[in-house]
Design the sequence.
């Protein structure tokens, strides 16, 4: 059985997405409507309090917006006026502890209301994403059967998500570093929801442990694939958002579109997890994993007498390949930094980090040879 490549994973994910497009779109619309209603109700009740709080400081929002437009046109006097308006508003904020204490109960109420709304919205989104996972894992089940199964799995999967976030991010107190390390750790836990669904008797902790064990040796390829797809699917909704007007209808459409993109990413991640679970000895995304401790960087180029005169347009391929190299290059920098500290602290190399670096090195060398007209065959945009 051949190893699954990034392109094949994307293709299979898209096939399933199209196959269940009706259910996915309907779910996204329902989620969008519920969240929109919650947001509207919340804004209707909280906006008056927020407006009163702003007015009490003498902060004129209309005047501020006018000043901002003048600043954008290069009016430096408007910038000074805006600064004075902000300073005056800051002076009107209660500094006396007794005055601040009077508003404390109201603030607690508002903070509690905000936290409740955020919790409901996050819980609803997680419910939708869990439903998308079950659609793929229980592919032969009907929508009704999938929802019935989700009733008993929602809380375990929610607990799994909370523990995964704690294990991946929260335990590291250093900002920036916790994000990098958290992404690396969380990629190793991508199998845990599938394991929990298929083997519920194992529990949450056991699912996390099994995911960590089964994904050993693949974290570099996991992150490479997930980052590539994640960045692509962050850029596209962002571009769509810039085209939609900032109206209620535009916000609602953007919410549905974002949910659809999120559904595809969830399906893609589930496909990756299934690939590892079904073929634990095979790699994915960049070819199969072997037990060899070496990684050849030799690239044999046979001399070819003939070359098409269309070679003068080869550099145009860079308009496509540059996006791959940009994302992959950023990942290569992260891997190189991690490998540097790994070698400095432990005094030895990491096979996984070394393989990730060598893979990038091989790919860039093939493109160099092609662009220098030393070889005829154009390399793949994303190497297996």
Sequence:
């Amino acid at each position: 059985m051949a190893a699954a490549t990034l392109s094949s994973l994307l293709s299979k994910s898209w096939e399933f997405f199209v196959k269940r497009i009706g259910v996915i779109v309907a779910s996204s619309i329902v989620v969008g409507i519920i969240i929109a209603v919650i947001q509207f109700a919340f804004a209707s009740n909280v906006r008056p309090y927020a407006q009163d709080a702003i007015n009490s400081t003498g902060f004129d929002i209309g005047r501020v917006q006018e000043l901002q437009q003048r600043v954008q046109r290069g009016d430096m006097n408007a910038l000074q006026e805006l600064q004075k308006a902000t300073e005056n508003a800051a002076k009107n904020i209660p500094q006396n502890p007794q005055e601040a204490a009077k508003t404390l109960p109201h603030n607690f109420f508002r903070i509690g209301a905000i936290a409740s709304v955020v919790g409901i919205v996050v819980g609803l989104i997680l419910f939708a994403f869990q439903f998308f996972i079950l659609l793929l894992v229980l592919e032969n089940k009907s929508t009704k059967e999938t929802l019935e199964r989700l009733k008993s799995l929602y809380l375990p999967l929610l607990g799994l998500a909370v523990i995964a976030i704690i294990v991946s991010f929260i335990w590291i107190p250093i900002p920036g570093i916790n994000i990098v390390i958290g992404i690396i750790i969380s990629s190793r836990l991508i199998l845990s929801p599938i394991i929990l669904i298929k083997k519920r008797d194992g529990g949450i902790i056991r699912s996390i442990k099994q995911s960590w064990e089964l994904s050993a040796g693949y974290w570099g390829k996991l992150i490479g694939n997930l980052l590539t797809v994640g960045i692509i699917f962050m850029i596209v909704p962002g571009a769509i958002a810039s085209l939609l007007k900032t109206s209620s209808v535009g916000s609602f459409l953007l919410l549905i579109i974002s949910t659809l993109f999120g559904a595809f990413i969830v399906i893609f991640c589930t496909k990756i997890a299934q690939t590892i679970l079904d073929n634990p000895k095979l790699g994915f995304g960049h070819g199969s994993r072997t037990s060899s401790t070496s990684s050849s960087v030799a690239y044999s180029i046979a001399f070819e007498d003939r070359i098409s005169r269309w070679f003068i347009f080869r550099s145009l391929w860079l308009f496509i390949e540059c996006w791959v190299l940009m994302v992959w290059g950023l990942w290569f920098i992260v891997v190189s930094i991690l490998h540097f500290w790994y070698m400095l602290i432990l005094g030895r190399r990491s096979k996984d980090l070394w393989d990730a670096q060598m893979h990038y090195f091989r790919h860039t060398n093939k493109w160099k040879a092609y662009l220098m007209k030393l070889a005829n065959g154009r390399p793949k945009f994303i190497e297996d």
